């Protein structure tokens, strides 16, 4: 019954992986691709919790999505700070970060 959702999850995982592999130099696209992979994983947890009727997995899914959003916000803040300093967001220039 849930095989349609599993197909969507596999497509999301493949699109996320494809985005990371093909766009190694673009920081924003890599962040979006990682978020897509996380979305697919949390969607799988949600479908599993609906199928076996566990509320705790649904709560963990919501918490995980919140943590993923915070992670993305921190990554984008680092990118904005790097752009202000260097003037570019190409990943090759990230090797010169010092902290």
UniProtKB/TrEMBL annotation:
One annotated Gene Ontology cellular component of this protein:
NADH dehydrogenase complex
**Which PANTHER family does its entry note?**
NADH-UBIQUINONE OXIDOREDUCTASE CHAIN 4L, NADH-UBIQUINONE OXIDOREDUCTASE SUBUNIT ND4L
Q: Which GO terms describe its biological process?
A: ATP synthesis coupled electron transport
Q: List the transmembrane segments.
A: 6-22, 27-47, 59-83
Any idea which UniProt keywords this protein has?
A: Membrane, Mitochondrion, NAD, Translocase, Transmembrane, Transmembrane helix, Transport
- Domain of life per record: Eukaryota
Recall the GO molecular function terms of this protein's record.
oxidoreductase activity, acting on NAD(P)H
Spell out the Gene3D superfamilies in the cross-references: 1.10.287.3510
| Principal location class | membrane
- Spell out the InterPro entries in the cross-references: NADH_UbQ_OxRdtase_chain4L/K, NUOK/Mnh_C1-like
Q: Which Pfam families match?
A: Oxidored_q2
Q: Which family does it belong to?
A: Belongs to the complex I subunit 4L family.
**Membrane topology (UniProt):** Multi-pass membrane protein
Name recorded for this polypeptide? NADH-ubiquinone oxidoreductase chain 4L
Where it sits in the cell: the answer is: Membrane
């Amino acid at each position: 019954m849930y095989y349609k959702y599993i197909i969507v999850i596999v497509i999301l995982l493949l699109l996320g992986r494809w985005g990371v592999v093909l766009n190694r130099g673009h920081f924003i696209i890599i962040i979006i691709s990682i978020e897509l992979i996380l979305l697919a994983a949390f969607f799988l947890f949600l479908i599993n919790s609906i199928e076996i009727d566990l509320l705790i997995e649904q709560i963990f899914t919501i918490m995980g999505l919140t943590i993923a959003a915070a992670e993305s916000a921190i990554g984008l803040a680092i990118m904005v700070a790097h752009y202000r300093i260097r003037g570019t967001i190409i990943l090759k220039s990230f090797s010169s970060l010092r902290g």
